[in-house]
Model the fold of this input.
Amino acid sequence: MSVENNRHYRIGEQTTDATTEGLFQDDNQPLAVLSGRPLLSNKGIPLNREWINQVRVNTSAVERRAQTHVARRTVKKDWQAAWLLRAITCMDLTTLSGDDTDERVRRLCAKARQPIQQELVDRLGIADLKIQVGAVCVYHKFVETARAALQGSMIPVAAVSTGFPAGLSPLSERIAEIRRSVEDGAQEIDVVITRAHVFGARWQELYDEISAFKQASGRAHMKVILGAGDLLTLRNVARASFVAMMAGADFIKTSTGKEPTNATNRHGGWVQSRRRHSYRQAIA
Amino acid sequence: MSIAEKFAAMEYGPAPEDAKEALTWLDRHSRRFGHFINGAWREPFAREYFDTTDPSTGERLASVAQGSSADIDAAVQAARAAFPKWQSITPHARARYMYALARQVQKHSRRLAVLETMDNGKPIRESRDIDIPLVARHFYYHAGWAQLLPQEFPDYTACGVAGQIIPWNFPLLMLAWKIAPALATGNAVVLKPAEFTPLTALAFAEICQEVGLPAGVVNIVTGDGSTGEALVKHPDVDKIAFTGSTEVGRAIRSATAQSHKRLSLELGGKSPFIVFEDADLDSAVEGLVDGIWLNQGQVCCAGSRLLMQESIAEPLIAKIRERMITLRVGPPLDKGIDIGAIVAPVQLERIQRLVNQGVAEGATCWQPRTEMPSRGLYFPPTLLSNVHPSSMVAQQEIFGPVLAAMTFRTPSEAVELANNTAYGLAACVWSESINIALHVSAQIKAGVVWVNCTNLFDASCGFGGYRESGYGREGGREGLLEYLEPAWFKSAPSLPAAKPSPGENADSDRKTANPAPGSAEIDRTVKLYIGGKQARPDSGYSMEVRGRNGQILGEVPLGNRKDIRNAVEAAHKAAGWAKTTAHNRAQILYYMAENLSQRGDEVAHRLSAAVGEAQASAEVNSGIERIFSYAAWADKFDGAVHNPPFRNIAIAMNEPIGAVGIICPHEVPLLGFLSLVLPVVAAGNTVVAVPSETYPLITGDLYQLFDTSDLPGGVVNIVTGYSSQLLKVLAEHDDVDAIWCFTDQTSAFAAKSFSTGNLKQVFTNEGRAIDWFDVKQGEGRWFLQHATQVKNIWVPYGE
Done:
């Protein structure tokens, strides 16, 4: 642990500059509040290789769980409406296309403020809930536009970063990209990982990379996109999930939306949530 | 509660399945059902009815007929009358009917699922997604067998009229498991559904009408235990298939012992669920949800004994508890319910009583604070930890949502604990190491082993138990054999009843053996053969052996209970024989043939005094051939890989049964012995044989043969004596795993009667004469099938 810890801090020192408060935030201010529950920043822990080595994921069993899960629970009528509303509030309304324009982003932001038609809101009697989406997600170029459009709405702007979606630009550029988005007012940063580190089992490199992203994100909420469709095996997804959380990910996501297969409930639903659960218990 | 409040609460809310169509169906029948006999609904003779209720509400669903022996008799007569035609229509015609049954089940699947849930209390998710689809699949699969039967089972014929008794835990699925193979093989059936859950069977009767199944091929008589008893005891039933408790299974074994009824029993279990330290623990927990919390734990193969490797016990228990908290107990028609209602008050009370008893014995009981419905029969998911292997809750089948948890240290200890039960139905093995998983699977005594999965079923894979979990298989090729018999066997003539054993009043006018002219032979003392050594009998007595002309040929030891006990012990010590390679077993058998061939003339010469020269030399010659046959079979009677609709390898392994007691036929002393002992030995079993009572002196020749052929000591043990007495001792012996008896009818009945204690498998000639010189009758798969039991190992794969 000590060796890894040292290395970790060394990387931290190299990338620290005067504007960053330190590797991990000390204050316990929540990043956001969800249904009255504070979402605290994940401070991360030193890389624990044992967790990674002990990962066991039985693909067939996970598939069976994923298949039958959808048949084990259902919500109907008013409950269905309530759950769908909840889903809206958890959603990142996103546009990540080459043909994005300021105007398109503004339209998206308008939708984010009012995702449900007023008539429907009235009929459901949910005006007081002020249903809005969880965030608006754009490329760095549109962070300022989105920020302005969402002024006064409490909806955070998320920026995809770190050479999204492949994540293969030089590390210093990826880190600089995060900083620029934070400076422009992004409250959430979506980072992508170097998938090659997972294939090569270079956990320290992966850990250091994500730690550096975390540090650059500062007070912003860091969401780590694992690229599950690229990682292919559930075991890889599970290992990468652990490393990301140990390195301080506030949130782990399955995919960029640009991989051959994107989110499935095998990847995100089971493999990642189980790892998140284990991590939470372990650091509690 | 407003939507805004629901938004904050994030609760599931009710999601009831609509029961309207099922209720309409019940109303259409005026909520009153007679028996289904000869293609029509029939009032019970005694006009008695009983109510079937919804266990989740206590409400009456319908009245159903209480079957009497007169009703059973009418049903059996209808089946008997329908049987010849049903058996003789073309296989394709039978296949069409069965295909139609599958289609019709599918078309009405939701109504059947709702009906099942209302009658039984299981969650609609299970009846809708598991039970009914498997029912349809079973009929599809067996429609295929109906089509292929003559090509694939050319020398077999249907048993005739099958009496089938099914339990309440999977009512329609168990009906399908019983009826589909019976019909595919050309049998006609009388089925008695469980008292608590008759409705889907009655709905199935209507389906039989709808597809135009010939009248009398399927008859359904409802009622309680007495109705089942009448069916079991009916003299014109050829085969009884039963699924239910071990206790009732035993009673059925006794009740059918004095008859030629074929019997298959699928009984209770206390199946181990083994989790190794390298398992995917989260998935293992879900396995438990599908294991012990499926169908409220009212599953014969439920993984009710959790065996955890010590190193992961603590985190695993924590994960299990956490998962238990999220299990939802409630009205079974709700689509978001995990645990429904217990089938009947008596069952609920039994679960509570056993849990209390477990706690009194020191177990720690943990139940989540689950919201429980205010009415109806419910029991919360329950975890009993600190359970010791010998405690009652680790040994007795609870048949409820109750998991008993224990730990182990090493794989071999896991196997030991897993097998520490009288049952042997199923097992789960969770490990990411293929070495551990398959090694342990091979050693567990159970008919089904699921590796990294739980409670997977399919028509293509045999299901059934080892030991006191019963015998016979349902599903797969192996399941068809339960409803088939070799065609020649049914028409074989009966053997004359054996003369009563001379016993103590042996006549005193001894004629001395005629010594061969011109030679004075040295007295040849034949002894018992136990553990590879010649042994004197415990009794110190001998019995004389006389030749064809009444002349005394010599004497053999008079074996008794103690000698059998020693022989059984020796047979168990030689259990390593099962682990020798099949090639090695074949080599030893070939060597035996070599040695018999060398000494053939003298063996034949001695034998001729008992059976005449012609038969003696024929026995030796055929005997050598028979040895060759089984040497050949030893490495060829292999298993199968089934094709269930999963990404999975389902391996059907033919495993030896264990120590087999064999009562050899009297009339062909050498060839009869070899014909029975060799298939058993070739398959890896060990044997305690009682040789022909006509000429037990053959023992002396046999053990010389075994000794010179490197057969390991204890693989074959021979005890001479009065076969009827030794049969009783062997059949009653709890360490004998199967009994083969090939003498007269009385002995066949005795073998069945005396073997009920540990429910050992019984294989007899039913007192019929077998032409041992005819290879079609005297050797082959029929014998090997009885010398083995099929274990299905499910191995899902994929990364």
Q: What stands out?
A: The longest helix of chain B spans residues 124-152.
